[in-house]
Amino acid sequence: MRAKGATPLIDEPPSTAGLDPAGAPAPAGIGLDGVTRAYRTARGLVPALDAVTLHVAPAEICAVVGPSGCGKSTLLELVCGLQRPDAGTVRAGPAALMFQRDLLLPWRTALDNAALPLRIAGVSAAAAREQARPWFAELGLAGFEQARPRELSGGMRQRVAFVRTLLAGRPVLALDEPFAALDALTRAEAQAWLAGALAQEPRTVLLVTHDVEEAAVLADRVVVLSPRPGRVVAEIAVPAPRPRHRTDPAIVAVREHALVALGAGA
Ligand SMILES: Nc1ncnc2c1ncn2[C@@H]1O[C@H](COP(=O)(O)OP(=O)(O)OP(=O)(O)O)[C@@H](O)[C@H]1O
Ligand SMILES: [Mg+2]
């Protein structure tokens, strides 16, 4: 669907080359140039994104913050090839999307949920489980391999969903508010395990969050969007060594800068 008056430009769908469920995928980045997207609804066109230009280098962690409805999920769907822009171009390596809700299969064990992308890629059940198992130990899930999702806490389910996203073997991870449903303490833990997992298994990450502190703690760069239609109003580098803590002066400064940009954008 194309916005009236917008110039459609040819873009390439994300390729499936580089998909390697058996090991680390070839690095790939993300490039959006002048991306505009509007939804056609019964009430007319709803512009979601306005001329967004955003480049993420291979293995860079880029956080996107912005008010509700400013087009963040739309941005991730464009990167994953689930939508096409009305104008502008989107180039991205093969991407795996992690939704805000964990969407685990209730009838499968935690280990089999995590191993699902490998099974879909044709890996045998035994081999897929063996590949997923080390991540359970790594992320504090050892002993819960055979548990069903209903037997896990919200934070544990997010970890299983993250392992599943990682095991899709794609160089680009599009994370849509992965920790929004967690309480503050669990959320801080979740940020720590995500940072640890990405240090061990670097990927190009586009992390959408409402939480500017989470963005500053996790990302190399924080991109601030305006209210709908989302425009880039600030790009803030995070010059802090890792591991980070939310009280580090550099993290506090980035958080403040992002909050000011959010206010100015509105
Ligand atoms: N499928 C759709 N059809 C019509 N309008 C849509 C559709 N998806 C999103 N929109 C509209 O586009 C705008 C951007 O939506 P999007 O979900 O990308 O925002 P968001 O920044 O992810 O919001 P939130 O922070 O609440 O998750 C919103 O105004 C929304 O109503
Ligand atoms: Mg959203």
Describe this structure in words.
The chain has 266 residues and is an alpha/beta fold. It has two domains: 1-8 and 28-94 and 170-266, P-loop containing nucleotide triphosphate hydrolases (Rossmann fold), CATH 3.40.50.300; 105-169, no CATH class. It is built from eight helices and nine strands. It has helices at 72-79, 110-114, 116-120, 125-138, 154-167, 184-200, 212-218, 249-265, and strands spanning 30-41, 44-56, 61-65, 87-92, 95-98, 172-176, 204-208, 221-225, 232-237. It has a six-stranded mixed β-sheet with strand order 5-6-7-3-8-9, sandwiched between helices. Helix 4 packs across helix 5 (154-167), helix 5 runs parallel beside helix 6 and helix 7 (212-218) packs across helix 8. The protein is globular, with a radius of gyration of 18 Å. The relative contact order is 0.18. The structure holds adenosine-5'-triphosphate and magnesium ion.
The overall average pLDDT, rounded, is: 89
Q: Catalogue the unreliable spans.
A: 1-21
Which cofactor or ligand species appear?
A: adenosine-5'-triphosphate, magnesium ion
The tally of helices reads 8
Structural class by sheet pairing and helices? alpha/beta
CATH level 4 superfamily of the largest domain: P-loop containing nucleotide triphosphate hydrolases
Q: Architecture of the largest domain, CATH level 2?
A: 3-Layer(aba) Sandwich
Most strands sheet: 6 strands, mixed
Taken as a percent bin, the fraction of beta residues is 15-25%
* DSSP E strands, number: 9
CATH fold naming of the largest domain: Rossmann fold
